[in-house]
Specification:
Length: 269
């Protein structure tokens, strides 16, 4: 499986664009958050981060071909993507679903935390994060809170296939002393790393879709091999893949995913 996915990545060409931290982008991001749709407690969490944010970035907009049902499933179940990466041996990240819509994670480099989906629809996800870093970069524990807003659009082609447009806005509130230290050392790299990881993840989803369409036997047993993922979630994943195989078998068309951003490797974690 890993070799076929990597080959799929190599077959796809990309025109890369960096994300931005421009004030105009931040203002647009703030205006577009549907605060009125949040429960009072969730809205309070979000506003606290937005009002005290020490970091903002709008990551590159990615456009790629994928089945909407598979895409939304993966968006709402990041533990499945992490589980696939762990099977491929390309990440140190660990992720566990604590309850529906809430996940615990560790990056294997000193950061651990939780991610909670405060709002989820077909076109927008609002995710609240809390994290703690204990590692060599700082001589003390650093805590952060974040709000991640993922916007998605769907365009149906004349041949019946969909293009997904994904855009991610990130707001972080980190201890100011730690942030000042980071600004002096690694700040220019933080945004670039986030840009690349998001683009590479979008590309990975596109290649997974392509593989499910063109070589369904490669991913057929993938759900049952995932560890740390609830049986019901594995079953839902298997159903998504089966539907794609059924569509492919009756279509006669074999789509090649196209994505607007570069990403020549699966994200290194």
């Amino acid at each position: 499986m890993a070799s076929l996915l990597v080959v799929g990545v190599a077959r796809t060409g990309f025109a890369f664009q960096w994300g931005t931290a421009h004030p105009a982008a931040k203002e647009d991001a703030l205006r577009s958050i549907p605060l009125s749709k949040l429960e009072p407690a969730a809205r309070e969490k979000v506003l606290r981060v937005l009002n005290e944010a020490t970091f903002f970035r709008r990551l590159p907009t990615c456009v790629f071909r994928c089945d909407p049902e598979l895409y939304l499933f993966l968006v709402r179940h990041p533990d499945v993507i992490v589980g696939i990466w762990r099977l491929m041996g390309v990440t140190k990240i660990e992720m566990e679903e604590l309850r529906p819509g809430q996940f615990a994670f560790s990056d294997g480099e000193g950061t651990r935390g939780t991610a909670e989906y405060l709002y989820s629809s077909h076109d927008i996800q609002i995710i609240y994060t809390e994290a703690v870093y204990e590692g060599p970069l700082f001589n003390r524990t650093v805590r952060s809170r974040g709000v991640i807003v993922l916007r998605s659009g769907y365009v149906l082609e004349t041949n019946g296939h969909y293009y997904i447009t994904a855009r991610l806005d990130v707001f972080l509130n980190t201890d100011r002393g730690a942030w000042e230290t980071l600004t002096k050392t690694l700040h220019p790299l933080v945004g670039r790393i986030a840009d690349a990881n998001f683009s590479n993840t979008a590309q990975f989803v596109a290649i997974l879709y392509q593989t499910a369409w063109e070589n369904p036997e490669v991913v057929q047993r993938l759900p049952e091999r995932l560890t740390g993922v609830r049986p019901a979630v594995r079953e839902e994943f298997a159903n998504c893949l089966a539907k794609i195989e059924e569509k492919a078998s009756t279509s006669g068309d074999r789509p090649a995913p196209v994505i607007a951003e570069r990403g020549t490797t699966i994200p290194r974690k």
